[in-house]
Amino acid sequence: MTAMVWPDFYFARHGETDWNREQRYQGSMDIPLNDKGRKQADANGPLLREMLERDGVDPVSLRWFASPLSRAAETMDRMRAAFDQELPPVVYDKRLIEISFGTLEGRLHAEINREMALAPGERDASYWHFRPERGENYDDVANRLLDFAVELTQHSVIVAHGGVLRVLRHLVEGAPRGEVLNWPPPQGAIAHFTMGRMTLHMATNTWD
């Protein structure tokens, strides 16, 4: 991938959906948050506010980006509710949509033939280039994100998806593909990318 310098940004994966809980391939399908996911999103708001206060960052100075899929958009709305000032508008960018699993979307991880797709924990680096029928591979997502990166000219908040966060770890940190493909991106957490490294912060657990 093209080398570039990434600015500091804060990234949250959307809260849980029923398909996440059921371990279904979700991808670009617009599946809403469930009750646990809404609580995770609510908890992320105070966490982000505390992180910005710690870092001396004015929320009004930030750019706010989200995937247009409803699970990400609602997570962003719930996070922003923790702030008592008027914030800049959210930019909904299609380049932040989750990786498309094509014809596999809606099917359980456990029911997919191993020759068609492998669930996280079973992948090697070659899976980066696996493209299901009518879907995308992780290299497609990487190219989308490199195109999106031209928008990151200042500190930003991004709410998107687990696959997007996997790819960002590879692009920003240089984490190996085999590692990020098997890493389970958490919900109810905020990843702070700064100086080419990611630090993960977990929200207070209020949803169990």
CATH architectural label:
3-Layer(aba) Sandwich
Q: Supply the number of structural domains.
A: 1
Structural class determined from secondary elements: alpha/beta
The CATH C-level name is Alpha Beta
**Radius of gyration over C-alpha positions, nearest whole angstrom:** 16 Å
Give the proportion of residues in helices: 25-40%
Count, helices: 6
Order of helices and strands: EHHEHEHEHHEE
Question: pLDDT below 50 for ≥5 consecutive residues: which ranges?
Answer: none
- Can you give the mean pLDDT? 94
Describe the sheet with the most strands: 6 strands, mixed
Distance between the termini: 40 Å
Report the portion of residues in β strands.
5-15%
Strands of the biggest beta sheet: in what spatial order?
Answer: 3-2-4-1-5-6
What is the total tally of β strands?
A: 6
Categorize the overall geometry. globular
CATH topology: Rossmann fold
The CATH superfamily bears the name Phosphoglycerate mutase-like
Descriptive terms for the model:
alpha/beta; 6-stranded mixed sheet; 208 residues; 6 strands; Rossmann fold; 6 helices; globular; 32% helix
Describe this structure in words.
The protein has 208 residues and is of the alpha/beta class. It has a single domain (9-202), classed as Rossmann fold, CATH 3.40.50.1240. The chain is 32% helix and 14% strand. It has helices spanning 18-22, 35-55, 70-80, 138-148, 162-173, 177-182; strands at residues 9-13, 63-66, 90-92, 156-160, 189-194, 197-202. A six-stranded mixed β-sheet has the order 3-2-4-1-5-6, sandwiched between helices. Helix 3 (70-80) links the parallel strand 2 and strand 3. Helix 2 packs across helix 3 (70-80) and helix 4 (138-148) crosses helix 5 (162-173). The longest helix has 21 residues, at 35-55. The model has no long low-confidence stretch (mean pLDDT 94).
